[in-house]
Write a structure and sequence with these properties.
Radius of gyration: 15 Å
Shape: globular
Largest sheet: none
Structural class: mainly alpha
CATH architecture of one domain: Orthogonal Bundle
Strand content: under 5%
Number of helices: 6
Order of helices and strands: HHHHHH
CATH class of one domain: Mainly Alpha
Number of strands: 0
Length: 141
């Protein structure tokens, strides 16, 4: 609880300063991070997850012929919102192999700030209802 309070307090302090550091609808990220993340997502992620993170496979829940699952949507319509920010960061940084997936690791390609920007863009596509549910599941833990 303290962690959420600290993050929200920091976000409000940044918002009071104005400019691009203003948070988006009280979320943990700024509008500038979303803009930066959109470009990074287009360059590194859209090929597999779709232009607007909507996924590219009609049924991402069914394994492909090789037994692997297709990349899921990240726009709030799949399971990404079930995972805390720390796990999402870890998956982007280290890839999906450590958790049984096949997504490549981006830790050598993207800085921690760029990873946060990508996640900010993805979460900006989530409805307020999904974002609140993510928070309720300990998303910021």
């Amino acid at each position: 609880m303290f962690k959420r309070w600290l993050i929200l307090s920091s976000a409000l302090a940044l918002a009071a300063c104005g400019g691009d550091s203003e948070t988006v609808d009280g979320r943990w990220y700024s509008a500038e991070q979303v803009r930066q993340g959109e470009a990074l997502f287009a360059r590194h992620c859209a090929r597999c997850h779709g232009e607007k993170a909507q996924g590219t496979a009609p049924d991402w829940r069914r394994p492909m012929d090789d037994g692997r699952y297709p990349p899921p949507p990240l726009n709030g319509s799949a399971h990404a919102w079930h995972h805390p920010l720390s796990m999402l960061r870890n998956t982007v940084r280290n890839g999906g192999a450590p958790v049984g997936g096949w997504m490549p690791a981006f830790g050598a390609t993207l800085s921690d700030e760029e990873i946060d920007a990508v996640l900010a863009y993805v979460q900006s596509l989530w409805s307020d209802e999904i974002y609140r549910a993510w928070l309720g599941r300990g998303g910021l833990d």
